[in-house]
Amino acid sequence: MKTRWTWGGLLVIGLLWAGCASAPNEQLEAAQRALQAADSAEADVYVADLYRAAQDSLAAAQAEIEAQNARFVLARDYKRAEQLLQFVAETAQQAIQQVAERKEALRAETEALIAEARQALMQTHELLGRAPRGKEGAIALVSIREDATSVEAC
Q1: Which residue pairs, CB below 8 angstroms and at least 24 apart, start in 18-23?
Q2: Is residue 59 over pLDDT 50?
Q3: Residue 76 DSSP symbol
Q4: Distance from C-alpha of 124 to C-alpha of 113, rounded to nearest angstrom
Q5: CA-to-CA distance for 11 and 15, rounded, in angstroms?
C-alpha cells in the first residue's frame, strides 16, 4: 500500500513539474537580437511595414509572457508567446533580406534616372549649338548655358 502511495505521489509530483511551463526567455532574446539586426540593416527605412509588424509582434509576445507570469504556476501556457516570438524572428530575417533587395532595386532605378538626366543634358547642349544667335535670344541662351553647366557640376 505504501509503495502504491509512493509511486502515486511521485507520479503527481512528476506531472506537476512537467506541467509547470517556463517563460521562453531564450526565444525572447533571440527575437530581440533578430529585431536589432533588422534595425542595423535599416529595415525601418526600406521595409517599414515588415519591420513594424515584427516590432508589434515582439511587444505582443512580451505582453503575453507577462500575462502568463501573472497566472497560477500550473495554469501557465506560453505557446502563443512562443509562436509570436518565432514570427518576430522570421519576420526580422525576411526584413533583412528584403532590405538588400530593395537597396539593389533603388540603386538600379537611380542609375537609370542618372543616365536619363545625362541624355537630357546632351540634348540640351546639342540644341544650344543649333539655337539662333540673335539679340533677343542671347540672354535666354546664356541663362540656359549656365543652368546646364550647374547641372553638370552636380
Answers
A1: 19/74, 20/73, 20/74, 20/76, 21/68, 21/76, 21/77, 21/78, 22/78, 23/65, 23/68, 23/69, 23/78, 23/81
A2: yes
A3: -
A4: 16
A5: 6
The pLDDT tens digits of the residues spanning 6-54 come to 655 545 554 444 455 688 999 999 999 999 999 999 999 999 999 999 9
Answer yes or no: are the C-beta atoms of 108 and 54 closer than 8 Å. Answer: no
Q: Are 23 and 71 contacting, i.e. CB atoms less than 8 angstroms apart? A: no
| Distances 128 to 6, 9, 10, 108, 139 between C-alpha atoms, Å | 103, 99, 97, 30, 13
Helix (H) or strand (E) run with residue 105 in it: helix 79-130
Distances (CA, A) of 72 to 51, 69, 137: 34, 8, 88
3-state SS, residue 131: coil
Per the listing, cell 537597396 goes with: 103
> Look-up: residue for cell 516570438?
85
What pLDDT score was predicted for residue 18?
46
Q: What's the predicted TM-score (pTM) here?
A: 0.65
